[in-house]
TrEMBL record:
UniProt-recorded name of the protein: BTB domain-containing protein
Species of provenance: Hibiscus sabdariffa
Pathway terms, separated by semicolons: Protein modification; protein ubiquitination
Pfam families: Beta_prop_At2g24240 (PF25279), BTB_2 (PF02214)
Lineage: Eukaryota, Viridiplantae, Streptophyta, Embryophyta, Tracheophyta
Source domain of life: Eukaryota
Coiled-coil intervals, chain numbering: none
Record-annotated BTB domain positions: 6-76
InterPro entries, A to Z: Beta_prop_At2g24240, BTB/POZ_dom, SKP1/BTB/POZ_sf, T1-type_BTB, WD40/YVTN_repeat-like_dom_sf, WD40_repeat_dom_sf
Amino acid sequence: MGIQGDTVKFNIGGRIFQTTATTLANAGRDSFFGALFDDNWDLRQQQHQELFIDRNPDCFAVLLDLLRTGDLCIPPNVPERLLYKEAMFYGLINHVRAAKLGPFDGNRLKLSKSVTGRAPGDGTAIRAGPDGGCCVAHGSMVHVFDWMLEEHPPLNLDYQRVNDIGWVNAENVLISACERLGRGDGGMGLFSSYTGDLRYKFNVVHDNQIKSYTAGALSFSPDCKIFASCKGRSNEYGIGVWDQVTGKQIDFFYESPGWSLGEADKLQWLNGTNCLLVATLFPRKDNCYISLLDFRQKTMVWSWSDIGAPLAVGEKRVRDAIAMEECNSVCVVNEYEDLGFIDLRITGGSVRWSSRSRLMKGKMPDEPCYPKLALHNGQLFSSMNDCISVFCGPDWVLTSRLRRSYGGSICDFSIGGDRLFALHSEDNVFDIWETPPTPVV
């Protein structure tokens, strides 16, 4: 790399800044400053040559100190949104994120901000984006927010109810929606997260004919496959598979008699076994059905259901499920936030319920939001009413709770981009929880 003593002068909006080649190299090859170096990281421009950039000097001073120290100190006279936009211009937005957000840790999360939605009706789902933004579904509308929590043009499905949403990448959002009888629409569509434009509509083909269908739960695999639960008008019930790149349907796992796949509440791709977890849960169905599908052999390799369970365990109806491959088990939760575990090595085994996690005593509220589960970085998260519980360790012991003072029950939450987003049932409020950065010594 260039000699550390090499200096570079910048004229930023009329203010002169001077720094070293070593400091600029901290910005990385893909940044604005990376273009100042050749392939050997030697400066292209002559030493003491001044480079003029017509940008905000106050923001540049903050970003230059970030490259020098790794610490982000924003003075009161610099608006954060303006700083983020300047960071995007210089290609330093990832440096800002890393300095602003510490490594995600459920036990250190702090409430950063709350955002009130504009759409009428209760929220359907919230999904964290890969870059720290999120999207929120309300009825037939999906509102998209970037990392700065600025809202992009909404996605309007023309009165088709949204069932699930998923981020293909930072630029594209996948939406599953209900079919409207007589219209031949519904199904799945790929939308631009920036403009809201429909880019592609995914078809279901049955007997060489394109069918209208209702798409439900979504999931993705690392090899660019999209999975969705599908419910058609005849026997097109099951799990459809599409190529993420071409948008073409490549497989369909049909629902067998006596089981439920097409109305699944949750899909989860398991990288270790290359199988898909499919969970259809109460109250969508009178009984709960959880299975693992192997699309390579088109077989159901594991299954569990509460069909035939004694009425005495009615209070322990499964409300959500998540596979834990490292533990060879599926974690489930009931309406009282009891965690239960089902052994993946035994088909049809019983649920081992644990009451040590119970936080709620007595009756459910009049308008409950059923608990949801998430697994992230070895920590288990479970929502219940107006709080989210965090469980850690081999015995999944309760270690902390996230709660705020208003907004009502939590109807959904999602983790991604080093943030946790929690959607409340009242006023469509969603919270942003972040891990504070580790102090720079």
